């Protein structure tokens, strides 16, 4: 970590002073280390491996994020997917991360997931095929004349048209599966599936402790197959170009992150009002800046 430059922001504001003593508890450290697949080589030296209670260092700050991810529901033992997201987000991240490792490294981005490309590819193809099918069916539906034999012929052509769309859609979806299967095999050989965390995850202004928890949710939505398919809206605080989700309805990583922050604002336990208010601000920032089509609401 010698070549990484960073400074530690106010730890009362970030929540690290609040959560640090809680995650500095050996059974929690052992459990989190194994459950979230910390890749040992990447947390040595300045990253905190031998100093995992020191919240100036990245490892302890990552533990804080995982603590808040797992223990912010009133009855946190209940991780049922039928309960609110505060209950099951920690479990969701654990399940998505099976087969993935967690690394920390220099760079001023927040986080990147490697190895989800094939799952994302298959989902994207499926999504495109579905859209192709919907548009195709629409273009095969036209007003038919009401005199025979014109009406009969017209209906028949419309059905042939729809049949063709159906067939090509199935081929399209099947192709997506075959291609992603080949992709996966190549991927297993070529890539270590992993989430990489960068300096802005540990020290960035939006990455107080709950902000870090929300980043885990975001990255795991990528592992589940949702890539960013949109471009940032004009004037976005995230810059321009790729990396946005096209809409709220797309149900992608940005929405999941915002929703987790929203729940934390509404119902987060064992925390402070200040951190909850900041979670609301961060969620609203995402809602305003991370979607190509503005979702059209803010959390008040
Ligand atoms: Zn993302």
Entry summary:
Helices cover 54% and strands 6% of the residues. With 300 residues, it is mainly alpha-helical. It is elongated.
Task: Characterise the protein shown here.
By secondary structure, this protein is mostly helical. The protein has two domains: 203 residues, no CATH class; 69 residues. The strands form two sheets. It has a three-stranded mixed sheet with strand order 1-3-2. Strands 4-5 form a two-stranded antiparallel ribbon. Helix 5 crosses helix 9 and helix 10 packs antiparallel against helix 11. The model has no long low-confidence stretch (mean pLDDT 94). The structure holds zinc ion. Zinc ion binds next to helix 9. The site of zinc ion has 4 residues, from helix 9.
């Amino acid at each position: 970590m010698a070549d990484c430059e960073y400074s530690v922001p106010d730890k009362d504001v970030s929540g690290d002073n609040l959560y640090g003593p809680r995650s500095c508890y050996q059974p929690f450290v052992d459990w989190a280390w194994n459950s979230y697949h910390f890749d040992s080589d990447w947390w040595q030296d300045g990253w905190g491996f031998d100093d995992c209670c020191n919240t100036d260092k990245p490892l302890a700050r990552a533990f804080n994020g995982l603590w808040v991810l797992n223990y912010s529901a009133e009855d946190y033992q209940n991780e049922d997917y039928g309960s609110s997201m505060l209950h099951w987000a920690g479990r969701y991240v654990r399940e998505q991360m099976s087969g993935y490792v967690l690394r920390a490294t220099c760079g001023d981005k927040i986080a990147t997931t490697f190895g989800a490309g094939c799952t994302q590819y298959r989902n994207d193809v499926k999504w495109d095929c579905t859209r192709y099918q919907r548009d195709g069916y629409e273009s095969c539906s036209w007003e038919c004349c009401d005199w025979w034999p014109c009406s009969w012929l017209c209906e028949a052509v419309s059905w042939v048209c729809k049949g063709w769309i159906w067939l090509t859609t199935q081929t399209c979806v099947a192709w997506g599966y075959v291609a992603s299967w080949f992709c996966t095999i190549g991927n297993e050989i070529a890539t270590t599936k992993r989430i990489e965390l960068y300096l802005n995850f540990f020290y960035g202004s939006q990455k107080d402790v709950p902000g870090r928890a929300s980043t885990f949710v975001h990255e795991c939505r990528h592992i589940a197959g949702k890539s960013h398919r949109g471009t940032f809206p004009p004037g976005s605080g995230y810059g321009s170009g790729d990396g946005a989700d096209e809409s709220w309805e797309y149900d992608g990583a940005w929405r999941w992150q915002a929703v987790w922050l929203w729940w934390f604002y509404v119902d987060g336990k064992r925390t402070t009002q200040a951190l909850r208010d900041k979670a609301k601000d961060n969620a609203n920032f995402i809602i305003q800046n991370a979607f190509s089509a503005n979702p059209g609401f803010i959390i008040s």
